């Protein structure tokens, strides 16, 4: 049994796919909370014998609405060279480009920084920590005396060489780490073996996500993309997902959504990657007060709420959603018609500029709004079964997609994967191998890790080389070895069990 859960802005969707491919979906209000929802899920399936995947809007919510509430102390160990004072408190300690500890940290200096300010979380960033994380671990030992490990982020877990972006990403991780930690502990009450859904459409074990929780940022568009593909079989289309608070528009091309690299979060350029989408700040629960407002105060009147919403406007113009009479008693028909027209005009304008002639409508209100949007934009449309929970379906059917950062130094016979020395590879690393051999070693290790984490061997065949750089070590006119940096990723997509 595969169970996919998407915790959105207003509702939580659950999808079940059994061994025969039978699909069921359910929707819960977020007020229930993850513990109550998992308790209900547990009555239907044995979670300890199922593959459980969870997509959560928690990181997105924190970083959009509570960014300044979580105060992060950023400790930076850059070594000599450029000035990094704008990135945090600059401290002694340096690892060089080959991973040698040139200067140790000063524990007293770290302690002084911890005592000097108020903070909720700590980000620890060393310039070449991806090649040797020793100094970050030493700093962590000091930091642990002042804050719990659930509120600390280490930069070598981000796994990219670009230091300024890695610092920013580590700060982001520190801001969301505690909340993700608490969510994880709630889920672990039901099972120790589950996955989180990433912003690029892949899934990773919770233990991996805890080290770099920014990978979970803005995962909803990706889940909708793969859910829409699975439900329709279409590989090229515009997806319009009408949620409770936003309407997201994205393009599916050759079976996959476009992924945006180095995403900016609150003005900070980061190593975060997620599916590219256009988000319109109106959805089914958006407040109506003379006009639609870009926020939610309560559920619709038709579902027992206190305020009118887009859902209620649809009831006034002829739909029958929930207690439609309550909507009609409260609102004026001509005003409702005007606002619904304005909403569909706005979405259609965006859709018209996208190079595809087919719309896949998802979200609870898709059946009521997509026909009008398609008509105005001159597109064909399809609204699949289970469209109201396409996000949870996408979460259920996606495959493991690990990213691996590898560092090879053949002169010293060193292989480092995701910041950790791999002694098993020593015998294979010597001399002056060609680039393809080093790339092959990184790809092989990524596949091995994914299978160890529960991926099927058929799901790890497609591996992309995200980054590669190498140079020869020459002394006395003789090539002594090679240093190479490789980043590879198992390509996101549908898992073999779902195809």
Give the SSE map:
Elements: E1 2-7, E2 11-17, E3 23-29, H1 33-44, E4 51-56, H2 58-65, E5 72-77, E6 89-90, E7 94-95, E8 101-103, H3 107-115, E9 121-126, H4 134-143, E10 152-154, H5 163-188, E11 194-197, E12 203-205, H6 206-211, H7 220-232, E13 237-242, E14 247-253, E15 256-257, E16 259-260, E17 264-265, E18 268-269, E19 274-275, E20 278-280, H8 310-316, H9 324-330, H10 333-352, E21 358-362, H11 366-377, E22 380-382, H12 390-397, E23 403-409, E24 414-417, E25 420-421, H13 435-452, E26 463-475, E27 478-490
Parallel strand pairs: 1-4, 4-11, 5-6, 5-9, 9-10, 13-21, 21-22
Antiparallel strand pairs: 1-2, 2-3, 7-8, 11-12, 13-14, 14-15, 14-20, 16-19, 17-18, 23-24, 23-27, 24-25, 26-27
Keyword list:
single chain, 499 residues, alpha/beta, Nucleotidyltransferase, domain 5, 6-stranded mixed β-sheet, 27 strands, 26% strand, globular, ATPase_NBD
**Low-confidence parts, pLDDT < 50 over ≥5 residues?**
none
By DSSP, the count of extended strands is 27
Helical stretch tally: 13
Sheet bearing the most strands, described? Answer: 6 strands, mixed
Strand order in the largest sheet: 3-2-1-4-11-12
Describe, in plain words, how this protein is organized in 3D.
- With about 500 residues, the protein is of the alpha/beta class.
- Among the domains are: about 230-390, ATPase, nucleotide binding domain (Nucleotidyltransferase, domain 5), CATH 3.30.420; about 405-490.
- About 30% of the residues lie in helices and about 25% in strands.
- Strands 3-2-1-4-11-12 form a six-stranded mixed sheet, sandwiched between helices.
- A hairpin with a 5-residue loop joins strand 11 and strand 12.
- Helix 3 crosses helix 4 (about 135-145) and helix 8 packs across helix 9.
- The radius of gyration is 25 Å and the shape is globular.
- The two termini are about 15 Å apart.
